[in-house]
Amino acid sequence: MMMSGFKRTQRDYPLSFKIAVVEKVEKGEMTYKQAGCSYGIQGRSTVLVWLRKYGRLDWSPGLPDQVKRRLPVALATVPLTPEQRIRELEEQLEQASQKTEFFNYLSITCSMTNGYNCHQNAQAEWINGILKMSFYSRVLQS
Question: What would you give as a GO molecular function for this chain, any one (predicted)?
Fold first, then answer.
């Protein structure tokens, strides 16, 4: 039983509407703030919450803007030429060999089943962080 004169401020939006708004924002047709204004969505961060929940791009806070705004989904699905695919695989192989070389140098066992202890785990995570930072800096420079 509702009290008379009580106005509910929270609105419920259908899932199809949420996904349609998320797709428009991820395609770059409008920002999430513009989407909120143009569709009359209550709450400043509602669309951002939808992007994190239903979106295909990484909308988590704390990442550099260049990493957040990757290629739109439509462009990311374009098949690579054989030369591009070979180049991509060679880069992955190079990164894997660098990691292996690092871990072998520090004599860290990388397999969870081989039972590495907390010190080795922390060291491996630290090295992975360094490798990720160097990878992102190379990506952002190119």
Answer: sequence-specific DNA binding
How many CB atoms are closer than 10 A to CB 98? Answer: 13
Say whether pTM exceeds 0.90. no
Give φ, ψ of 11 to 5 degrees. Answer: -110, 150
Three-state SS annotation for 28-68: CCCCHHHHHHHCCCCCCCHHHHHHHHHCCCCCCCCCCHHHH
The 10s digit of each residue's pLDDT in 87-102 is: 889 988 888 888 877 7
Q: Which residue segment(s) compose the domain that 21 sits in?
A: 15-75
Q: Are 134 and 94 in contact (CB under 8 A)?
A: no
Evaluate whether residue 66 is within a structural domain: yes
